Task: inverse folding
């Protein structure tokens, strides 16, 4: 039985559990890795029964419901930038992004915009006629696809951009609309052109082309891994017309592809149910990233015993109730050559399921049914690691840190009133077991500071209070550093993701004081997102610039009941801003 368990161990444990340990059991474990014959011999016996036990728990949990995700390959789209007349392009669908101004017609009901006028002429006036009949005015969210004879393309689509379009999010939306139209038409080849691109700077053209490509990939993505049947998207190629050509644009399209792939990866992590994505499985995914980009990324996955040696009492207190053991994930990106000019850390909350503990989530709005999303911060961090492994920016070292575990209920779990001791020596009275994410982040932030980094950004689905304050689409930002805030907000302008800076009101810390410990883990309901951020601040070195991002709202699309991949794009842009 023990031999079977060892043979089934996750590869990350075989690969990296001994990398930073000198214990006898770890050395024997490493020998098992290098000798298949020993895996089934009596040499297994010296392995601590604890390891065999928690791996048995892991394997049992992974089989709960007999559910495994189907291995569905993500669709690959060939992007190309071309400068040709729209009437000469040949393919399944030509999509034209139009503003309300572009749709203006003269007294003869003819288009005034040159591209639309040319298309309408080639189609014998049908484009103007149909757009009038369908009352298409170019408003944001409007689209119409026409199957018309007379062009090299089988279909012409008009996609509304609103009164004007100048932001990355607008053009990402254009890409998503193109993807939706391509799905409906089952198109293999699509071209996109803007009705008005005159006067755009070269930088704007690069940014808009990248946003269109990214939006198309993300709009095409459907997570069908847990469905018994699924249709594969037909789209194989996307040509972007009229926004330039050349190596610089090709590089930008490749960048969009890399980041979009990482966002899809982040989405799929969050979408995965807790009976599949256990802490061990999340650590396995992190290990795969390191294996895929081993020239620039290495992994250090710590077990509960190793975390105990590092005195991570706050993190381990949360993990104590679950049969699925915790895994502390640390990936490090280092360029293969050149000097390091900036050291950064990205820390993500990694609760693969949150029941609330003894303060169990109950009643309307508790959202216990979607608490698989409580590792949304870690998904953003690991997604960024995947993208950066592909992009390979110079001059910057990045640590990706996730204290992964479950918050469950059992006789071994933490109770309200328990006192935990974090790895920096500070003590915490647990007055609410459902304020657990900050407890795991406390030790993760201390660990990040110990890596010698200059800046830390942590991301967490931390509070419902932040959703109440900012709604479902905007993440709350808390930082004492104006410089760091400026950097991240500049990155978000490129990514198109929405953030809002919130106050760190120090006077609110009064509600976090304990009579018997250094602090409690939650204050009252007023200012709940602020007091949560103030709690995290207690575990960050004063010399380190730090930001907390509460993404409880935008991590999840409630209408579609799927993850968004929020945070990945902004994190990548921020790291690149710190790259030489």
Result:
């Amino acid at each position: 039985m023990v031999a079977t368990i060892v043979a089934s161990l996750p590869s990350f444990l075989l690969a990296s559990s001994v990398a930073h340990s000198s214990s006898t059991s770890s050395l024997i474990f490493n020998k098992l890795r290098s000798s298949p014959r020993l895996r089934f011999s009596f040499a297994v016996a010296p392995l601590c029964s604890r390891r065999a036990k928690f791996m048995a728990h892991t394997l049992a949990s992974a089989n709960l419901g007999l559910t495994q995700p189907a291995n569905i390959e993500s669709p690959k789209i060939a992007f190309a930038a071309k400068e040709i007349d729209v009437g000469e392009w040949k393919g399944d669908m030509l999509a034209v992004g139009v503003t309300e101004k572009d749709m203006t017609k003269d007294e003869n009901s003819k288009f005034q915009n040159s591209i639309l006028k040319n298309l309408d002429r080639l189609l014998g006036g049908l484009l103007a006629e149909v757009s009038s009949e369908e009352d298409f005015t170019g408003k944001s969210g409007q689209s119409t696809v026409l199957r018309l004879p007379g062009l090299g393309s089988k279909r012409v689509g008009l996609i509304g951009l609103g009164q004007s379009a100048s932001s990355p999010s607008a053009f990402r939306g254009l890409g998503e609309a193109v993807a939706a139209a391509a799905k409906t038409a089952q198109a293999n080849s699509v071209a996109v052109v803007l009705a008005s691109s005159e006067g755009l700077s070269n930088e704007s053209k690069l940014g808009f082309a990248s946003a269109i490509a990214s939006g198309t990939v993300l709009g095409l993505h459907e997570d069908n891994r847990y469905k018994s049947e699924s249709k594969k998207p037909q789209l194989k190629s996307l040509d972007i017309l009229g926004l330039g050509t050349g190596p610089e644009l090709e590089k930008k399209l490749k960048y969009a592809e890399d980041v979009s792939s990482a966002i899809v990866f982040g989405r799929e992590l969050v979408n995965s149910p807790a009976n599949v994505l256990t802490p061990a499985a999340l650590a396995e995914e992190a290990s795969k990233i390191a294996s895929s980009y081993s020239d620039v990324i290495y992994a250090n996955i710590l077990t509960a015993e190793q975390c105990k040696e590092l005195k991570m009492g706050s993190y381990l207190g949360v993990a104590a109730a679950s049969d699925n053991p915790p895994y502390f994930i640390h990936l490090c990106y280092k360029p293969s050559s050149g000097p390091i000019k900036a050291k950064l850390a990205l820390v993500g909350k990694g609760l693969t399921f949150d029941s609330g503990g003894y303060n169990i989530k109950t009643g309307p709005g508790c959202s216990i049914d979607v608490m698989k999303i409580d590792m949304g911060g870690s998904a953003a961090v690991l997604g960024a690691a995947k993208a950066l492994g592909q992009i390979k920016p110079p001059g910057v070292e990045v640590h990706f840190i996730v204290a992964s575990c479950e918050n469950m209920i059992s006789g071994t779990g933490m109770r309200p009133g328990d006192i935990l001791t974090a790895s920096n020596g500070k003590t915490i009275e647990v007055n609410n077991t459902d304020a657990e994410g900050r407890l795991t982040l406390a030790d993760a932030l201390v660990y990040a500071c110990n890596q010698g980094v200059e800046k830390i950004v942590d991301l967490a689905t931390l509070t419902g209070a932040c959703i109440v304050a900012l709604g479902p689409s905007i993440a709350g930002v808390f930082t004492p550093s104006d410089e760091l805030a400026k950097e991240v907000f500049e990155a978000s302008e490129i990514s198109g993701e929405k953030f809002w800076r919130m106050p760190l009101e120090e006077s609110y810390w009064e509600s976090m004081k304990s009579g018997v410990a250094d602090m409690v883990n939650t204050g009252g309901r007023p200012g709940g997102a602020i007091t949560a951020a103030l709690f995290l601040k207690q575990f960050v070195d004063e010399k380190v610039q730090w930001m907390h991002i509460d993404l409880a709202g935008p991590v999840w699309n409630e209408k579609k009941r799927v993850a968004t991949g929020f945070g990945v794009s902004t994190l990548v842009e921020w790291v690149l801003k710190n790259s030489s």
The CA atoms of residues 109 and 128 lie 7 Å apart. The chain has two domains: 76-245, 256-577. Residues 1-9, 14-60 have pLDDT under 50 and may be disordered. The first helix runs from residue 2 to 7.
